[in-house]
Every structure is written in structure tokens, then in C-alpha cells.
Give the backbone structure.
Amino acid sequence: MTVRTTTLDNGFRIVSEHMPSLQSASVGVWVTAGGRHETPEQNGIAHFLEHMAFKGTTSRSALQIAEQIEDVGGYINAYTSREVTAFYARVLRNDVRLALDVISDILLNPLFETREIEVERYVILQEIGQALDTPDDVIFDWLQEKSYPKQALGRTILGEAERIRTFDRGDLLTFIDQHYGPEQMILSAAGAVDHDQIVAQAQHIFGNLKSRRQLTAETACFVGGERRFEKPLEQAHMALAFESPGYRADDFYTGQVYSMALGGGMSSRLFQEVREKRGLCYTIFAQTGAYSDTGMTTIYAGTGEDDLSDLAYLTIDEMKRAADDMNEDEVMRARTQMKAGLLMGLESPSSRAERLARMIQIWGKVPDLSVTVEKIDSVTTQDVRNFAAYVATQAAAAMALYGPISGAPDLSDLQARRTS
């Protein structure tokens, strides 16, 4: 399997990886603009644009977009994150050209008809309502907000309902003009693909796009804080966040290994101590996410009202204990889980295309998989202990609580526990 990259004269980037044993391919365009690139007045517009992508172009109706991909047995979708918006399709090898034609059409020739904007506005408002009714969804939005208060990175991707109700065609076109230049697009393809054919098609479609001034996102600063929302639910939901490295930081992989060992699987410390031994919850996990300039180690658990306080304090105790006695076996197991997850995931062309685009976004190139594996293997037990000590006692922290939480400790109580 060979990764190839090409950059057109206007800055449009193309990356592909041919997977010779496959009969299918994944192809898409990743735009390096997401929620954190919005102004406060634009909050939610990137996600709104994602929805509108499938609502018709100058040459295809919304139904035709769906039919042309599904007529060949394909699948088309999109998503919005805080740093990218992606439009992608999975098709058989003979339909890669069609998939790219459809994706480019929805990117470059959207109609944004008033009627369709109103329809999708209602759909998004329902999506926001659904999220608010899903405690283990909304609690992470609150956690993000408290981690990065009054910052673009802290705002919800869906946007606030009041703002969504005001967006019009002009708002959508403005965001496209600001952030959808050729330098901000990455065409990524993996599977049964021919790089030269994709480049030729991309040159024809995207080669005449005019370069434009790129707007950079504001630098993020993890601050921390607490949000509590009392509601008579069956379970109390708790989410904690601690400042961690961004994905370009030297200790990025240390943070990943740490969270895997702490709460990444059934053998992890939190799962074993909190669920298996104490029976304090059904779900508990830890994960470390990263952005270009910052990151978050997050812990989530849902439990009964009477057990929430014990669970919260025990979580802090386990974090502190990891700094003292995290052992070689745990670190080796976490490294192995990470490598296996990475390599298993890359058996899918969709995962391959996603990785290619992400690597181009972060590094401007695609490092060999062996480089990533080497970085994971280079994380030592002492590295993890040092990282655990920082997260447990010094890192800025945020907390969100939702449900029957009247007896839950305050963040200040947990901070005192961290430093005791």
C-alpha cells in the first residue's frame, strides 16, 4: 500500500492510498474549518452548512444526490467537529469518479434555497432538543464550555437554538467565503483508487478555485470550572476534564497511553476498582482527546444518586494512585491496545481516508504507520507516572454534573482531595 500526495497550484491538497485487495473505496473532502473557527455570532453555522450540503445544488436535487450514490450501492455522509468539516462517500471501485463528482458538487454549487434552509433549521433544532434530552451527550458540551469558557473551542458544535433560528442564506455564504478556500480543503481517498485519475479529476474541478486569505482560530486556553444541573433522572451523570497536551505536543502519546491504562477498557484501573470491585456504576471510562494547541483528559461515569459522592472521590484517589504505582504490565497492555486499535481500524478504507486527511491537516504529510507505532512503544512507565502525577494534582480541571446531584461534591472539594 502506497501513500501519494499532490498539491495543486492553488494550494488544494490531495492524498490517497491504494489498497490492492479491495473492491471498494472511500473518498471525501475534509475542510479545515469547524466549530472553533466560528465567531460568537456564527456559532453553529459550520454544522448548519454540513446539513445544507445535501439539500440540492445547481445540477442535482436533494433526492438526486441521494439516489445517484445509492443507485450504485454507495453511502454518503458528512460530519462537523471543532476543527474540521468532512464530506465523504463509500463506493465500489468503478464509482469513485461519481462519488467525487457528487461531493464536489455539494461543496461548490449549493443552492441554499430558502425553503430548504427552513426545513433544515427545524431538523437542527430537533437535534439540539434531542441532545438536551440525552444526559451523556449534553454533559460533554457543558464540560467543554467550562474547560474553555468564552472561547470558540468551548462553544457547542450544534450552536444555541436562539442563534440557529436567525441564520439565513447570506450567513452560510459568508462562512464559505471565509473558510472554504482551496488551501483549506484536503481530498482524501483510500481503497481501490488510482491517485493519478483522482488528481486529474480534482484539477478539473478544484484547480481554478481562487486562493484566499485564511482566517486562523484563536489560541485556546484551558481554564476549568463547574456546571451542575439538577434534574430528577434515574442516574446522576458526572464528567471530569483535565488539561492535556495538543496533538503536536511531545507527550501526546503519553497522554493517550495514560488514559487507556486508567479507564480505556475492562482491565483498566477505573473499570476494575469502581465497577468490578465496588459496583458503584455501570459505565465509567477515561479518554484523552486533542486539538492543534490543547487537549483534554476526560473521565465519565453514570451512577445512582447515593453513590455519586463515593464515586467522585474514588476516581480522584485512583488518579493519584496511578502516579505512584502504575506498573510495566499496565503500560504495556495500554500500548498494545492502542496499536491494535490503530491497525485494526485501518483495515477499513474509510478509516484510512480519515487518517490520511488528519495527518495532512496536522503535519502536512503522512508519517509511516511504523513511526506512529514507534512513538507509542517509546512511552515508558515513568513517563506515564509523571503524566499521571501532573493530571492528578496540577492540571487545570473542569466538572459537569447532571441529574439527581444534590449530594455530589463541589469541584473545590475534589480539588482539595487532589492536593491532600
User: Anything to note?
Assistant: Residues 247 and 290 are 5 Å apart (CA to CA). The chain has 16 helices and eleven strands.
